[in-house]
Design a protein that fits this description.
InterPro entries: Methyltransf_25 (IPR041698), SAM-dependent_MTases_sf (IPR029063). This protein is an alpha/beta fold and about 250 residues long. It folds into 2 domains: about 180 residues, Vaccinia Virus protein VP39 (Rossmann fold), CATH 3.40.50; about 55 residues, N-terminal domain of TfIIb. The protein is built from 7 helices and 11 strands. The strands form 2 sheets. It has a 7-stranded mixed β-sheet with strand order 3-2-1-4-5-11-10, sandwiched between helices.
């Protein structure tokens, strides 16, 4: 089952608890902390463009890249997407027309990479397309997050439909699979059913830091997304901030 196909049309409806505004403010804070000018920003794994549009509203020229055509179609139909260049590409082999001031990859897009080789590959590509001293900022769900999630089933009923989320985490491999079943009610009372399987991976901090440094980037900071402070053993999501230093 291919991810983010039928689910794309209802993604934002069921993800309405995600603190996009806070996360966008966090990114702007990190940009300002490391003197990122108002230049072009590339959003890797932009999905429906929730973060892309918020950063555009803050004054940045935005490029959104996602492997899912369906998610990009949802992004492009948003009324506040004017001026954003959306590209349907795989982050593991993305191409830009030139360099950019910053690359961001948010909402656990990096966790969809399957192993450290793919992580290193993405970091090298990012380094190639960054302006001198450009920034790479991304978040990841941590091992702690996936361990706490474990093997659970989450279900929710809403007026317009319902979903079932079955989760399986393997602590030995770091792989996390979840299976989505979504029922959307039609006007005639019938239901459309969507099924998707997603695979994410829990990288260790050491693996991520090694990929950043091995790609030629300089690691500037690792911080907890919720506190913007030092990571702890129970941090669910982390920011990694790196800078281009080779040009």
């Amino acid at each position: 089952m291919e991810a983010y196909t039928g689910f794309a049309t209802v993604y934002d409806r069921y993800m309405d608890n995600v603190p996009y505004d806070t996360w966008a403010t966090n990114i702007k804070t990190l940009f300002e902390k490391y003197n990122m000018p108002m230049e072009i920003v590339c959003d890797l794994g932009c999905g429906t463009g929730q973060m892309t549009r918020r950063l555009k509203a803050m004054g940045y020229d935005m490029i959104g890249i996602d492997v899912s055509y369906d998610m990009l179609m949802e992004a492009q139909t948003s009324e506040d997407s004017d001026g954003i260049l959306y590209l349907c590409q795989d982050m593991r082999e993305f191409e830009l027309y030139g360099t950019v001031g910053a690359v961001v990859s948010l909402c656990d897009s990096i966790n969809y990479l399957r192993d450290t080789d793919e992580l290193l590959q993405v970091c090298k590509l990012v380094n190639n397309y960054l302006d001198p001293k450009g920034l790479f900022i991304f978040d990841v769900k941590t091992e702690h997050y996936y361990r706490e999630l474990g093997c659970k089933t989450i279900a929710e009923n809403r007026d317009e439909g319902s979903f079932i989320w079955e989760n399986e985490y393997d602590p030995e491999t770091g792989d996390n699979s979840y299976y989505l079943t979504i029922y959307e009610e039609n006007e005639d009372g019938t239901f459309d059913r969507y099924e998707e399987e997603h695979l994410q991976h829990a990288f260790t901090q050491e693996e991520i830091i090694d990929a950043i440094k091995s790609s030629g980037l300089e690691l500037l900071e690792v911080c907890d997304v919720n506190t913007m402070g030092e990571p702890s053993s129970d941090s669910d999501r982390l920011y990694f901030v790196a800078r281009e230093i080779t040009k």
